[in-house]
């Protein structure tokens, strides 16, 4: 085995261990601590906030610049996709609707 390959393997192992520790240490420490209810409610909203930011970035900045125009197919597709999400409350149907609307808009306008 070449020296460079060995260094890469060691680096991957070190990164994997660090990643595991960064994820597990807070879980182990916080499992023994009583978290105040307001903080717990705040932390429960974090996943929704992260997903909302990721969706907003994808919809409003499709080409690394803000685009609120009607030429933005992602902005146009977000309207019926949001309607499906609110109507069905189903992630599967929402994703399917979003993909179909984007595909249809790309086929018709691009």
For the secondary structure, the number of strands is 0
| N→C terminal distance | 50 Å
The arrangement of helices and strands along the chain is: HHHHH
Q: Which structural class is indicated by helix and strand composition?
A: mainly alpha
Shape: flat
Which ranges are low-confidence, i.e. pLDDT below 50, for 5 or more consecutive residues? Answer: none
How much beta, percentage-wise? Answer: under 5%
Secondary structure: helix percent:
over 70%
Main sheet specs: none
Describe the structure.
This protein is mainly α. The protein has a domain at 34-109. 78% of the residues lie in helices and 0% in strands. The chain is built from 5 helices and no strands. Helix 4 runs antiparallel to helix 5.
Features:
flat, mainly alpha, about 0% strand, about 110 residues
Chart the SSEs and their pairings.
Blueprint: H1 3-30, H2 37-44, H3 46-60, H4 73-88, H5 91-109
Helix pairs in contact: 4-5
Condensed summary:
With 110 residues, the chain is mostly helical. The protein has helices spanning 3-30, 37-44, 46-60, 73-88, 91-109. It has a domain at 34-109.
């Amino acid at each position: 085995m070449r020296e460079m390959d060995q260094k890469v393997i060691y680096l991957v192992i070190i990164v994997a261990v660090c990643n595991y520790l960064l994820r597990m240490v807070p879980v182990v420490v916080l499992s023994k601590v009583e978290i105040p209810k307001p903080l717990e409610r705040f932390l429960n909203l974090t996943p929704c906030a992260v997903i909302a930011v990721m969706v907003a970035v994808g919809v409003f900045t499709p080409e690394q610049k803000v685009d609120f125009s009607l030429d933005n197919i992602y902005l146009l597709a977000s309207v019926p996709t949001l309607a499906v999400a609110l109507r069905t409350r189903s992630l599967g149907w929402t994703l399917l609707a979003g993909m179909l609307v984007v595909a249809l808009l790309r086929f018709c306008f691009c």
